[in-house]
Amino acid sequence: MKGTVLICCFLSLLLLQATAEEEEITSVLRDRSHIDETLRLATEEKAGDYAAALERLRKIYHTSIKPMEQAYKYNELRQHEISDGEITSKPMVLFLGPWSVGKSSMINYLLGMHDSPYQLYTGAEPTTSEFTVIMHGEKIRSVEGIVMAADSSRSFSPLEKFGQNFLEKLIGIEMPHKLLERVTFVDTPGIIENRKQQERGYPFNDVCQWFIDRADLIFVVFDPTKLDVGLELEMLFRQLKGRESQIRIILNKADNLATQDLMRVYGALFWSLAPLINVTEPPRVYVSSFWPYDYAPDTSRDLFKREEISLLEDLNQVIENRMENKIAFIRQHGIRVRIHGLLVDRYVQTFKEKMSFFSDPELVFKEIVDDPDKFYIFKSILAKTNVSKFDLPNRDAYRDFFGINPVTNFKPLSAQCSYMGGCLLDKIEKAITNELPALLSSINSGKQPGLSSCEATGCGEKPKNRYRKN
To answer: What pLDDT is recorded for position 198?
Structure first.
């Protein structure tokens, strides 16, 4: 009996001590004024100029690029259809990484949602099982995934293709916030290496790829206890290939370590990631502790504060250059659509040249699609102006493309002209070399967007990614 009483007393003391420590920690909150200052949230934007530029961009896409996209079924090759919602959407910041590394806590901290009813749930165990989209709204409310997918004015309607099981794991949170007027955050389920992807009930990697393709900035978050790379994380970095300029690595919870241990963990993180990021320039790694509470005592507070401000400056660059990045994205898309149209046109012409009265159409085209180099399909495209060999799609992709879409379904480019509408090729080339660079020039010079000459930027020059660290 005495032993039971002693145990109860001991547990009560431990509980009281833990409660006192928790109260002591939670009572010291970090100053957040630098977030508003760095992100310039108090500065009013010129909404009229931005809306006019977006409308001009949307018109260029619909009149000059989309007709060729539809005529040659480009979406069936790339599986990326651009909607009005995507053109007018805010920049997207995507949070990826292992479970319980602080992704949700970081979003709560940036938005000041700590201790609010709509803060993202956090904990030491895997807590986020949904894809959570935090966006601007007139009032605080949650939006179900099926509603987000059904709303054509949003950019999430293509997510319906991943099935109803996924839409049940998609949730949106709307709230009035100055930062969310300029950017949208996406929190993702943490990667758990000991769980098979199929147990999630939806194609997790495909969904991640959809968000990766549309993200303007990608934060891959780690903490000192989760540096090992398993199969699912390795697959994630394969999906990030080609997006290295948008990736920012974050070593979170850094104030839990002494300086010497932090240096070892930093080196271990690079050692783990080195085989996965095959670029000459190492990725930018931010070392800090992103949550609302003050840094632990006897740690590198000044270093962590500078790292945090540096990350916020990166985020601000994305926000400030969002219009330029949208124009560059639509122009890049237009270049790919143009190359696709030229390739399909070349396949059609070659097929007609090789056909005779006694030829079997299937055998003739099978020979062409199996060995396009024999008929100079791709080499003939390189002779065109503004076509780089590095932009040419995979040859095997056209074997699958024409397996679904018979070559006889397509007209040559010379037949895609009308008296009133002009030629598809002329319109898309004008958009790539004149209209989009002119729109970019008007944005950079602060003038109203319109159809001006492209002498200021140089026609055909690809806009630079302005938020990449040099």
So the answer is: 47
Query: Amino acid identity of 151?
Result: D
Confidence at residue 446, expressed as pLDDT on a 0 to 100 scale: 62
- Nearest alpha-carbon partner for 246 in 205, 206, 214: 214
Q: Are 72 and 152 in contact (CB under 8 A)?
A: no
Helix axes 322-354, 361-370, angle to 10 degrees: 130
Q: What tokens does 65 get?
A: 């690029």
CA 140 to chain centre: 25
Q: Note the pLDDT of residue 200.
A: 78
Buried b / exposed e across 295-328, counting CB within 10 Å, b at 16+?
bbeebbeeebeebbeebbebbbbbbbbbbbbbbb
What are the strands of the beta sheet with 141-144, ordered from one edge?
141-144, 170-175, 131-136, 184-187, 92-96, 217-222, 247-251, 285-287
Q: Which of 277-286, 367-376, 456-465 has the lowest mean pLDDT?
A: 456-465
CA angle 267, 272, 273 (to 5 degrees): 100
Confidence check: pLDDT of 11 > 60: no
Instruction: Please state the separation of Cα 39 from the chain's center in Å.
Output: 20
pLDDT one-digit tens code per residue, 381-435: 888 767 888 888 888 889 999 989 999 999 999 999 988 888 999 999 999 999 9
Cα 216 to Cα 95: distance, rounded to the nearest angstrom: 11
Quick one: residue 460, left, alpha or beta (phi over 0 = left, psi -120 to 50 = alpha)? left
| d(C-alpha 108, C-alpha 128), whole Å | 13
And the tokens for 245? 């300029």
Which candidate, 287, 182, 268, 258, places its Cα nearest to that of 229?
A: 268
Q: Which of 94-98, 105-109, 150-154 has the lowest mean pLDDT?
A: 150-154
Rounded CA separation 228/248 (Å): 18
